[in-house]
Amino acid sequence: MTNPIEQEAKDNICDHTSVGMIIRKGENILLIERRIFPFGFAPPAGHLDGDTFDHSALRETEEEVGLKSKSSKLLIEGKKENKCRRIGGSWHYWKIYEIQTEGEIQRSEEETKQAGWFSIEQIKNLASKIQRYLDGQIPESEWQESPGLEPVWFEWFKELGIL
User: Fold this and answer.
1) pTM of this prediction?
2) Which pLDDT tens digit goes with each residue over 101-113?
3) If phi over 0 gives left and psi between -120 and 50 gives alpha, with beta otherwise, what is residue 66?
4) Hey, which of 3, 115, 127, 137 would disulfide with 32, CB 3.0 to 4.6 Å?
């Protein structure tokens, strides 16, 4: 059995694998605003932490927004350069799923500032903000206080045709 100190050290090392979940309600998409780095709005997502991609998608959906998954469909996968707060976390191999869920949103207060259903127009506004941030028009302190889309999700949303 791993002692708590060893487990915490292990949990702080990036495994370079992530899942992301697109959850829809009508035309809207569920986004969370991250409380901790990387700052920004994003669909529920997380590391595999030794689990399978499929199971991690279901686990992270429940952990971050409290929704039970009814079904999942792989939409896209690939490697992206994106920083995370874990040691060595400069890139991840992602699998992005569309998840059908049931229940009411019960966000993780530890990991999120807010969670809700965003229209495509609202997502485009968040995308505009990330573009201004990436262009150096928004300083880091302002970004952390009121971010747009998380940078890696700006890329995924473009590839998925959402933007």
Assistant:
1) 0.91
2) 999 999 999 999 9
3) left
4) 115
